[in-house]
Amino acid sequence: MYKNRLRVALQYYEELTGQKAGELPSVVAEEELERLKVQIGFFQHERLIHLIVTVLFGLATVITVPAYLITHEIALLVLTGLFIVLLVPYIVHYFNLENGVQQLYLYYNKLELLANPGYKKIY
C-alpha cells in the first residue's frame, strides 16, 4: 500500500517542482510545503517501523544460525530459511521506502526555493 502512496506522491511533487520559478505562485508553494511536511512525517513513521522490523528479523536470522550449528536441530535450519525468505523482501521494502523519503526531502527543498525565490541554494 505504501508503494502506491509513495509513487503517487513522488510523481505529484516531481511535476510540481518541475515548474519554473514564477509559474507556481508562492502562496501555493507554501501550502504545498505544509502538505509535503505532513506526508514526509507519515513516511518517516512508516520507515521507522519497517527499520525496527527489518532489524529484528535480521537479528533473529543471525541468532538462529549459531543456534543450529550448536544444536544441529533441523527445525532451527528450517526457521533460519524462513527468516531469510522474509528478510530479503523486508530489506528491499525498506530500501525503496528509504529512497522514496530521501527523494521527498529533495522535493521539499525545491518547493522551498519556489516558495521563496530569494533563498540561496544550499544543497
Order of secondary-structure elements: HHH
Shape: rod-shaped
Name the beta content range.
under 5%
**Helix proportion:** over 70%
Structural class: mainly alpha
Our count of helices gives 3
Work out the radius of gyration: 21 Å
Major β-sheet profile: none
Overall mean confidence score, pLDDT: 89
User: What is the terminal-to-terminal distance?
Assistant: 31 Å
| Strand segment count | 0
Return residue spans where pLDDT drops below 50 for at least 5 consecutive residues: none
Structural account:
- The structure is a single chain.
- The chain is an all-alpha fold.
- Helix content is 85%, strand content 0%.
- The protein contains three helices and no strands.
- Helix 1 runs parallel beside helix 3 and helix 2 packs antiparallel against helix 3 (74-115).
- The longest helix is centred in the middle third of the chain and has 46 residues, at 26-71.
Task: Provide tags for this entry.
about 120 residues, mainly alpha
Topology (elements, then pairings):
Blueprint lengths: L1 H16 L8 H46 L2 H42 L8
Helix pairs in contact: 1-3, 2-3
In short:
Helix content is 85%, strand content 0%.
